[in-house]
Design brief:
- It is a single chain.
- The chain is an alpha+beta fold.
- It contains 13 helices and twelve strands.
- It has a three-stranded antiparallel beta sheet with strand order 3-2-7. Strands 4-5-6 form a three-stranded antiparallel beta sheet, with no helix packed on it.
- A hairpin with a 5-residue loop joins strand 2 and strand 3.
- The chain is elongated, with a radius of gyration of 33 Å.
Length: about 475
């Protein structure tokens, strides 16, 4: 029996149904007409699926790896972005204790609480433009691992209309040299995150590396920098022109040997018995003219989401301009967080379906804890303002990147553990302990704070009832 075809059996029916509910547009819709694939790609894709991998995409991924290994600037861009994406780790936001318990076990098995695992996935997503995670099951039908696969050897098996021919054989991994099929994956078996595909509704449209548009500029930049070094070595040193009028070839060779042999001396005098002289030939006086290198460098960083000032090339940039550029960069990082978190959320949902749990689309939300758009001070200030407006604590905690259920449990434990003579805990209708009558007073004064600092004042009542110093 073909092990791939067996995935479509009744044993895996919940996964197939769950995948179809998550991606209804991936199959044939009753009222859809026409083709999703561009005309210039349809013929090329059909020929490629028959025999080979996508060599153009593979060459681009290989180019990104070469750039990352040979240029410290590219390595820093990839590493900086990957580090900013995973900062704070993953947070599961749900009100269900069952989903919270399943997530904690799932996170531990897949090592999603390991920063190195998250950063490796983030670097792969940035360098290759895709994050394909193979969901490996154990004997008890649990997702035991999410193994990142090389995306340049994966071929989506799609029809000319852009939909999978068979969701049970949605992807094939092929040998680069022979085109032989190494493995086949069902649609639910591969959690795929794609960056900037040409058409998201086209299942055969893979993502693009983050710096693929900068490859041509990078080649020119490296070539120009090498030429600059060669030019300095060849044209910068001072040279001397020795002129001996009427000297024969033998006399000139003897003079040359004697003169070059004395070059190592601290002072060298030249003695001539014929008419002639020694003239200094100055080096190139325009070696500081590197506007072409500066232009290519600026062009290269213009194609990256991060401003070049973050990597040491300040060029007298104004601080307010840098702050605006950083905000745009962090907006891009937030999008990368959503793409990577979406792949993990898909894997977790497939695990739940294997356990017989079918959560609704709004029963859990998986995200990275820290959104890089705001600083920690701005997040705290925004939370205090929401509190002053009377918004529910659960909404505030969720928007701040915290787990509301975990905060709720910690509040209950704190209320029952601090008092050495505890009274019976009084809880409200929401299950939270009732707060004492003396509340912290939060007030907001718009525009009454320096840039980037809090404009929120908090008055916490003390032993004197908040009257201050006497």
């Amino acid at each position: 029996m073909n092990p791939i075809k067996s995935l479509a059996s009744a044993t895996w029916a919940p996964l197939v149904a769950g995948w179809n509910s998550l991606f209804p547009s991936a199959g044939k819709l009753p009222n859809e007409v026409g083709a999703r694939v561009a005309s210039d790609l349809a013929m090329e894709r059909s020929m490629r699926q028959a025999m080979f991998v996508d060599y153009e995409r593979r060459a681009m991924v290989a180019m990104m790896r070469t750039m990352d290994s040979q240029d410290g600037r590219v390595k820093m861009v990839h590493g900086r972005i990957a580090g900013d994406v995973i900062r704070g780790g993953l947070v599961m936001q749900t009100q269900s204790p069952v989903l919270q318990r399943e997530w904690q076990a799932f996170q531990g098995r897949l090592q999603l609480n390991n920063a190195e695992k998250l950063k490796s996935d983030a670097r792969g997503q940035v360098m290759e433009g895709n994050l394909p995670l193979q969901l490996v099951l154990d004997d008890s039908r649990r997702v035991a691992a999410a193994v990142r696969m090389p995306s340049d050897t994966l071929v989506p098996m799609t029809a000319p209309n852009g939909r999978f021919k068979d969701p049970a054989v949605a992807f094939e991994q092929r040998d680069v040299m022979t085109g032989q099929v190494l493995a086949r994956f069902a649609a639910w078996q591969l959690a795929l995150g794609r960056l900037d595909p040409q058409n998201w509704d086209d299942m055969g449209s893979m993502g693009r590396p983050l710096l693929d548009g900068c490859a041509s500029t990078w080649r020119k930049l490296v070539m120009t920098e090498e030429d600059l070094v060669l030019r300095r070595r060849m044209r910068a040193p001072l040279r001397l022109a020795h002129i001996l009028e009427g000297a024969s070839t033998d006399e000139l060779n003897v003079y040359r040997q004697q003169t070059e042999g004395e070059k190592g001396d601290i002072t060298t005098d030249f003695y001539l018995n014929k008419k002639g002289g020694v003239q200094a030939v100055q080096g190139d006086a325009n070696l500081d003219h590197i506007a072409d290198v500066a232009h290519l460098l600026s062009t290269f960083f213009a194609g990256t989401p991060a401003p070049k000032a973050l990597f040491g090339y300040t060029d007298n940039i104004a601080r307010d301009v840098l702050e605006d550029m950083k905000r745009q960069y962090y907006d891009h990082v937030d999008g990368l967080q959503d793409a990577q978190g979406g792949a993990y959320a898909f894997a977790f949902r497939m695990h739940l379906l294997l356990q017989g749990i079918d959560p609704g689309p709004d029963e859990f939300y998986l995200r990275f804890a820290q959104r890089r758009t705001e600083t920690a001070n701005q997040v705290a200030d925004l939370g205090l303002k929401w509190m002053a407006l009377g918004l529910p604590d659960e909404y505030i905690h969720r928007e701040m990147g915290l787990d509301p259920q975990q905060i709720r449990d910690m509040k209950i434990r704190q209320a029952t553990s601090n008092d050495p003579y505890p009274n019976p805990l009084k809880v409200g209708p929401d299950g939270l302990p009732l707060q004492p009558s003396t509340q912290n007073h939060v007030s907001v004064t718009p525009g009454n704070a320096p840039k980037g600092e809090s404009a929120t004042a908090i008055a916490a009542p003390g032993g004197n009832g908040g009257r201050g110093r006497s």
